[in-house]
Amino acid sequence: MIVLGKKKKVTKYIVIALGLLLAYTFVEPHWIKKKTISIVSSEVPVHFLNTKIVFVSDIHHGPFLSLRRVKKVVGRVNSLEPDIILLGGDYVHRDSKYIEPCFRELKKLKAPFGVYGVLGNHDHWEDPKLTRQCMAEAGIHLIDNRSYWVEKDGERIKIGGVGDYYHDIQDLEPMISGATNEDFVILVTHNPDYVEKIRTNKVDLVFAGHTHGGQVTFFGLWAPLVPSKYGQKFRTGLISIADMKVIVSNGIGTITPPVRFFARPQIIVVVLK
Predict the structure, then answer these.
(1) What is the C-alpha to C-alpha distance for residues 162 and 184, in angstroms, rounded to an integer?
(2) pLDDT tier, 233 (very low <50, low <70, confident <90, very high otherwise)
(3) What is the 3-state secondary structure (H, E, C) of the chain?
(4) Which of 161, 158, 146, 86 minimizes the C-alpha distance to 116?
(5) Distance (Å, rounded) from C-alpha 222 to C-alpha 212?
(6) Which residues have CB under 8 Å from 230's CB, separation 6+?
(7) What is the span of the domain harbouring residue 171?
(8) Residue 5 pLDDT
(9) How far, CA to CA in Å, does 232 sit from each of 145, 151, 212, 227?
(10) Residue 180 falls within a domain, yes or no?
(11) Cβ–Cβ under 8 Å, residues 163 and 118
């Protein structure tokens, strides 16, 4: 009888613990973390030292991430007073009806040197034409296979991107055309797997999303499902490949099911040094 009583108690505690862990997976998606990374490079021009770049990816506005939460993300990004804002794609989830409301909020993003963004696979699934139109109306520079020189006091850096890895072409030529090895060049790609196809040393810093940090992980150490052919390599964080730095964000939103476990949503802040 005593042994059975102890077993029942242990079972009860296990059930409670599992219930709490399950509840936490629905709480974590709302717990956005600001992650600050310093990037040190001799190619950063003097007048761009301490430039603050804020990167946001995978918002997934839709049935699991409300417009109210998009507004909060925009407010939080603006409160960081970024010099440059980069957007990594996957703005909506499941339905094209979410595109216009999402970009009405993203239009409020403020950065003196501009807001730049690429499309992700979900944007191609929903409505790429409408997404591009809404980006333009919001004042967001589309950088799918395009690039821009950003100038300050006679010095400059280059910002560009490539099309989605699965649903578009990836043309790096506009990025590297006119750039030398001494220029600081920033690339945005929704899917980090594209990094393995880069065959130039002119790209210094890459921003990517897509993986959601694995979304559900084994206490942040490993994830069973990472949407990358390279497994855990591009799951999350700062990765060095030769002289190139790659930053993979956990993103903001989720796909189905709308849970996270030790893969908190992120706003990435990069300071150039």
Answers:
(1) 17
(2) very high
(3) CHHHHHHHHHHHHHHHHHHHHHHHHHHHHHCCEEEEEEECCCCCCHHHCCCEEEEECCCCEECCECHHHHHHHHHHHHHCCCCEEEECCCCECCCHHHHHHHHHHHCCCCCCCCEEECCCHHHHHHCHHHHHHHHHHCCCEECCCCEEEEEECCEEEEEEECCCCCCCCCCCHHHHCCCCCCCCEEEECCCHHHHHHCCCCCCCEEEECCCHHHCECCCCCCCCCCCCCCHHHHCCEEEEECCEEEEECCCCCCCCCCCCECCCCEEEEEEEC
(4) 86
(5) 13
(6) 193, 196
(7) 31-272
(8) 65
(9) 27, 37, 12, 9
(10) yes
(11) yes
Assess contact for 160 and 175: CB atoms under 8 A: yes
Widest Cα–Cα separation across the chain: 83
Q: Cβ–Cβ contacts within 10 Å for residue 127, how many?
A: 17
pTM score over 0.70: yes
Give me the number of domains the chain comprises. 1
Residue 238 tokens, joined = 């700062």
Asked whether residue 151 is domain-assigned, the answer is yes
Q: In the predicted model, is pLDDT for residue 160 greater than 70?
A: yes
Question: pLDDT digit string (tens) for 5-57?
Answer: 666 766 776 666 676 777 888 899 999 999 999 999 999 999 999 999 999 99
Instruction: Specify if 8 maps to a domain.
Output: no
pLDDT tens, residue by residue, 103-159: 999 999 999 999 999 999 999 999 999 999 999 999 999 999 999 999 999 999 999
Domain CATH number, residue 40: 3.60.21.10
Residue 10 lies in a domain: no
Strand-pair partners of 160: 147, 187
